[in-house]
């Protein structure tokens, strides 16, 4: 039986707000453009030479790209993407403060800040360049089934370098949570308040831009154990990985397991 994730928005936003999407529906554009090859594997994969314990690095130029990397591909299928519901314009007021405007007044949008004094023990080089983290509440309230919390993080593979969304965990089964876009702006805006010299690519987060990634997870207690093993046992475990994850015929056990998962987030 699946677990339920509920996103709630005001009724008057229906048909005008961009809804949260399963991450699999919003692959990064650069990733979607990569050619898919029938022999595509992780670019750092190994191939057998008729012996599962005799492996050699796969050479460059054999048609591999990141579309064949199961770790990245499976991560890109996790959770839900929150797209920007409005166009956000970031400008410098000339006095060291960041000004944020938006183009659609139909949403109850508000910009707040969390100043560096809240993180004063950080090294100066680690603090946000504008002296604060920004917070803009999204139109969405999220609620999950019992036992399910949510990791909120930056949609890192979409490669937007203008901002970094802060990472945190919220226990959305205990109370509905109003999702906030909590972020830092990553560089000083050069054009200031002058609209005529504004750099559209660097100063505007367009409607539809992925701004947050929400990954629900089922809470369990974990215990870690550190062990030091013999070189032969270490090699055996490594060979086990090679045997289960690499095959010239694409029939390896790891791939079979991945295909059995289906779509986890709908």
Which keywords apply here?
266 residues, alpha+beta, Deoxyuridine 5'-Triphosphate Nucleotidohydrolase, Chain A, 2 domains, five-stranded antiparallel β-sheet
What report would you give on this structure?
This protein has 2 domains: 5-10 and 84-218, Deoxyuridine 5'-Triphosphate Nucleotidohydrolase, Chain A (Distorted Sandwich), CATH 2.70.40; 41-77 and 232-261, no CATH class. It is 15% helix and 29% strand. It contains 5 helices and 15 strands. It has helices at residues 29-33, 70-76, 200-203, 231-245, 253-261, and strands at 5-8, 21-22, 46-48, 55-57, 80-83, 88-92, 98-102, 111-115, 132-144, 148-153, 163-165, 168-170, 177-185, 204-205, 210-218. Strands 1, 8, 9, 11 and 13 form a 5-stranded antiparallel β-sheet that branches. The chain starts with a strand and ends in a 5-residue tail after the last helix. The model has no long low-confidence stretch (mean pLDDT 88).
Task: Find the structural class using helix and strand composition.
Answer: alpha+beta
Instruction: List the uncertain runs.
Output: none
Number of strands: 15
Shape: globular
**Percent in helix:** 10-25%
Rg of Cα set: 23 Å
Q: On the 0-100 scale, what is the average pLDDT?
A: 88
Order of helices and strands: EEHEEHEEEEEEEEEHEEHH
**Total number of helices:** 5
Give me the CATH architecture of the largest domain, please. Answer: Distorted Sandwich
Please identify the top-level CATH class of the largest domain. Answer: Mainly Beta
Largest sheet report? 5 strands, antiparallel
- Cα end-to-end separation: 13 Å
**Domains (count):** 2
User: Strand portion, in percent?
Assistant: 25-35%
As for the CATH topology of the largest domain, it is Deoxyuridine 5'-Triphosphate Nucleotidohydrolase, Chain A
